[in-house]
């Protein structure tokens, strides 16, 4: 039997298989190199990168919740220049496209990030984070306002030739509207979903557990919300979707693909199982074999098509 | 290089109420393990609890490929761990973290532990002993019921003094009382400390006063355990100039305006040079 | 020692303790009578009631998700008249106030429901469901639109003398705005939160699992979202809050109270543990005893006050 | 009245690969249990999996207060159930549901089961036997590996015929073949059926053709198991006039325009009069 086709095209980003990493859950790559062969990933999406280095949020940054976690990292990162000079050379050694997740406080930030990363050799696409719940300026504020979201994407598109993936916030009344807005602004693909806004209170200290009070909820707990959003958006907007939110296994990934995702990102699962990306990939392959699916693209949106 | 290993539980039994000793047949992790490192353990199989739990290496038997863990039940993760029976498989990642290192020049080491924080000190003590360094061991516990991790130390005849808050064993009072005394009596030129944060802070302060360098082993809530999620931070003095390379496992944050960094307990630590760490009050 | 005070006042609804049942998760009461003493509940909130009987949604109506469930019951109920003539007499036997959760397709429906239930003897308060994700008309559509939400509450207030609790949808960008809207419209209290909109796809049939495609996510998985919403709204709106969303234990309930809830409702937990309401109540009492809290009202919002 | 009971697992072992028999020391649930009822089981202790799992009563030993369950591992809930060891405590609710009832006038009963659906039929058969009714038992399975729940039936010498899809045991073909034959040979005037929905539907159709009344035991995805969540519906013919009272555990929906009701499998069922149920095609 000929091997089934796993390759997908995510709005211009060519991936040898649909499995990538969720930003912020895989560091800059080397952290998981002892556990998996990074060459086998469809792409690597790295931690959110900003123009200037960022320290991130103080205090407790993670708390476990039922089948999920809350995080309030706050975009700690060494800044784009450091990323380009130190992290990128390492990542270029691998036969895996590198997607850089970018976040800014202002439109100018996004423009500058897009410029520098496009000029740098070795970046395959930009994932534009307009949905981070853990920073005061920018972040989710952009992502919950339809007009602003589109503005950010338009700005990035003006300053790059790379495929632009718009990463949206699920914390909105009408995600389809925002997806349509960024589609019109020129996004090449959508990344769905970022974390849900949540919090936890320590009943003994009677204070919020997280240093930043609120945080982003991720992990299997949010999977039903992610699947619903992808299902809705995929039917309404003609852009390929990078699906994420609680994917732990190949079967979960298939659920996202059937809902309408062209590719999937594995986030929180890496913390639970450092081989999660490979288990997801192998699970997808097994499913395709079991049902004789010759091309993964046949499954995209198959639950409604 | 750390690995993920399905370790076989050789034994897992209480050493006293609430405190457990677990032996794991984990040849791969053991092979590279060093004092002060830890393993990251999946205590269940379902999505709740979701995260792994970090536990230090209490004993490293390189010959047999056996790791021992000493842990106290504080929540449901450690409770689930305590219910695992001999013969079961346990999903662990390790060895993680940097571990303790030998002092450059020092010869007389003070080893200070508090509560369950004594666990990672046992392999350290063995290492110091083997390196031929003088040492004095000071452990503090709440009371007699909380005294753990001293059997091997006593067996080997390593010099140990104990303090308990209620005086039920050893000195009545804090371990810092013993530390003060040891600074004058034992005249250490280096130290190691692990335990509750407030104890660490006090010891570091005393030693700083006395101008003695050392190492501290910290704890923080962890996600990945491998430097990928940036959850497990502690405040450290800003490093000037050089950055750790990306292939070292993580990037530290430089170039920002604050006079501190957030370092990662899981990979930059859990052991830090005592002078590096900034303790907030 | 004198017994600590557990009594709370939820916008005019006097409760002997802060523990009630979440609508739709406790039937009309008798279902759980074999397991607990209904007299010990602070209040009983019954299944969503409509003017006319409703059949509810076809097909599979429940699916388990990580630490949660999705439901698409679709407001199956025998109609308000049947409720008044058959269910209410049974409930009146207990020394526990009865709160009726009402749902309508139109403003007229809400008005009529309010009228009939106010006229009926034995209803202590109305919980107005403007947040059901499982019905086509009304339901969440009211709850996600600030103006409509306020209109519904204004209408109900015009037709009742009972305390009116507005139950809001979490599936919105800005819940504080909606809470403020219904507060101005005269709501006496807020119920937070209804279910998150989610879905699940069966990867073998490649179809949505639920007969109604999408459903409402409840259970511990959503607790961090509920706590965050209550924390936000409690600080912004001066109305007592009935908190719910994944409460399984007394400790969970304390978390909600510290966030700003005056009372709590136990929903999905009943399915897991038929004594959940009593376990929650006893857990609250234990916490108060442990920390010497003399009056539960001292804890309301204590995490930010 | 149903209760929640912490039952003691007396035994829990495979009767063949994938199929388990569990014995529970559950005096309270057993006391009121009737054939056709079920227990609702919490298979884990954490929040995942969250819901209970409904399992029928396979044997009810009123004297010893012991319940037996016969179940097949199909997903992770049943897998977790199969891993519970003798001696453990199991959180169950029961007895739930209405159970089978004796026919008003009939004397010759056909008992039809398919796959694991034979489980609730064993206590029914005992009840029919005790009531002095003639019966014929017809069981269908996929193949020899899937044949379960026949030991007691055979021991007692109750008249049993088996069909397997591949003919590896008994008749080769569907159990409906045996049903057709029995309608002519055995001439039943009543029947009971439990098994996969498609099998139930076919049996009901055959019996309806032959004008024979009976009872069906259905399955549905459940939440509460007690009539509170309204999740476990099946379509039934609309009852005219009277409503079940609220104290009976639930209200049925009348007065709407459709010509059917949604009844609850957990409390109106799992056993329904065969004529009540509407099967969608
Ligand atoms: C590097 C390192 C080494 C450790 N070594 C040991 C050891 O040898 N023996 C031992 O008994 N304990 C050790 N601990 C502490 C141990 O990890 C926690 O007690 C354990 O994670 C608590 O889990 P739980 O589910 O029982 O408690 P819960 O309070 O229910 O845990 C909830 C969450 O908080 C986290 N958490 C709770 N307490 C701590 C803590 N003190 N440090 C970090 N995270 C925490 C848990 O990991 C979990 O994510 C170590 C911690 C670290 C960071
Ligand atoms: C009244 C009743 C009596 C039953 N008696 C028996 C019995 O005696 N022996 C036996 O082996 N099985 C019986 N079943 C089926 C049994 O409940 C399911 O096989 C079991 O719940 C599957 O759980 P899981 O976690 O292994 O599977 P999963 O597929 O992982 O379960 C996921 C979810 O779907 C539900 N579910 C899956 N299959 C079914 C099903 N067939 N019916 C209802 N819910 C389902 C589960 O309860 C759970 O909520 C009975 C079901 C009902 C409704
Ligand atoms: C610790 C952590 C850090 C994250 N950092 C980022 C980030 O920098 N940029 C971003 O767009 N998303 C970030 N996310 C969101 C994830 O990329 C992902 O959208 C979300 O976690 C849902 O997927 P999951 O459930 O598989 O984790 C982060 C998530 C976690 C848990
Ligand atoms: C099966 C089911 C039925 C529900 N029906 C209603 C309803 O009729 N009216 C309503 O306002 N909320 C309804 N809800 C929502 C709950 O009242 C509650 O807001 C939600 O489930 C969150 O709480 P929990 O996580 O404790 O269940 C229902 C929830 C479930 C699970
Ligand atoms: S635990 Fe993830 S970076 Fe340390
Ligand atoms: S399972 Fe809840 S009503 Fe039947």
UniProtKB/TrEMBL annotation, chains A, C:
Binds 1 FMN per subunit. It catalyses: (S)-dihydroorotate + A = orotate + AH2; (S)-dihydroorotate + NAD(+) = orotate + NADH + H(+). One of its GO terms (molecular function) is dihydroorotate dehydrogenase (NAD+) activity. Its EC number is 1.3.-.-. The active site is at 132 (nucleophile). CDD domains: DHOD_1B_like. Catalyzes the conversion of dihydroorotate to orotate with NAD(+) as electron acceptor. This is Dihydroorotate dehydrogenase. It comes from Thermincola potens (strain JR).
Automatic annotation (TrEMBL), chains B, D:
Binds 1 [2Fe-2S] cluster per subunit. One of its GO terms (molecular function) is 2 iron, 2 sulfur cluster binding. [2Fe-2S] cluster binds at residues 224, 229, 232, 266. Its cofactor is [2Fe-2S] cluster; FAD. Keywords: 2Fe-2S, Electron transport, FAD, Flavoprotein, Iron, Iron-sulfur, Metal-binding, Pyrimidine biosynthesis, Transport. Pathway: Pyrimidine metabolism; UMP biosynthesis via de novo pathway; orotate from (S)-dihydroorotate (NAD(+) route): step 1/1. FAD binds at residues 53-56, 77-78. The keyword Aminoacyl-tRNA synthetase does not apply. InterPro entries: Cyt_c3_hydrogenase_gsu, Dihydroorotate_DH_ele_sf, Dihydroorotate_DH_Fe-S-bd, Dihydroorotate_DHASE_ETsu, FAD-bd_FR_type, FNR_nucleotide-bd, PyrK_electron_transfer, Riboflavin_synthase-like_b-brl. Pfam families: DHODB_Fe-S_bind. GO terms for biological process: 'de novo' UMP biosynthetic process. Residues 2-102 form the FAD-binding FR-type domain. It comes from the Bacteria. Responsible for channeling the electrons from the oxidation of dihydroorotate from the FMN redox center in the PyrD type B subunit to the ultimate electron acceptor NAD(+). Heterotetramer of 2 PyrK and 2 PyrD type B subunits. Belongs to the PyrK family. This is Dihydroorotate dehydrogenase B (NAD(+)), electron transfer subunit.
